[in-house]
Q: What sequence folds into this?
């Protein structure tokens, strides 16, 4: 159910084309990824991560500012959200361009990523900001991402159903861990709450 063929392989294997009509595709280094194509993990992670960042910037730095007028707040918030949408658009197009995903897989990745939410996020967002905690969060996120990549590379490939189920679970867990659990853990350790 979650397998989701990737375009580069599908076009080479489908019986919809014969030798004369089959499109010739150029392979990129990122084209042949080992995980399932549905949904797009790149879009899920970027939408979830940058939506939280965008909303936090808008709410904490723009909307709560006492130096800005209502019009200035609206314009700055619109600029921040436009930047978010442009970033997601670039990733969306790039995933199609390198033939790593079909369009429906990207759309599903976007939907599953804007759906990611956690009450822990509000605790972290409302906590006093601290440079050391921010650096630890970034380093922790990078470490967790590298660990997830090692886990993905070592998933069992002999059983496709198990491989796809584990890959899907990893793609769901990774954004939640980085966005909600890691900052909350560091907040608890740092402030002892």
A:
């Amino acid at each position: 159910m979650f397998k989701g063929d990737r375009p580069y392989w599908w076009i080479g294997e489908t019986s919809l084309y014969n030798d004369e009509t089959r499109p010739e595709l150029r392979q990129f280094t990122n084209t042949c990824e080992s995980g399932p194509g549905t949904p797009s993990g790149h879009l899920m992670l970027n939408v979830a991560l940058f939506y939280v960042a965008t909303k936090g910037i808008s709410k904490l730095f723009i909307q709560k500012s006492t130096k800005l007028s209502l019009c200035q707040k609206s314009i700055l918030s619109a600029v921040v959200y436009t930047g978010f949408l442009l970033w997601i658009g670039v990733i969306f197009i790039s995933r199609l361009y390198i033939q790593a995903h079909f369009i429906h897989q990207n759309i599903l990745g976007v939907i599953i990523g804007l759906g990611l939410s956690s009450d822990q996020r509000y605790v972290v967002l409302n906590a006093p900001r601290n440079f050391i905690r921010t650096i630890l969060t970034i380093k922790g996120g990078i470490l967790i991402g590298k660990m997830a990549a090692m886990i993905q590379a070592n998933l069992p490939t002999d059983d496709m159903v198990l491989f796809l189920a584990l890959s899907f679970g990893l793609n769901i867990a990774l954004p939640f861990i980085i966005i909600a659990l890691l900052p909350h853990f560091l907040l608890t350790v740092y402030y002892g709450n």
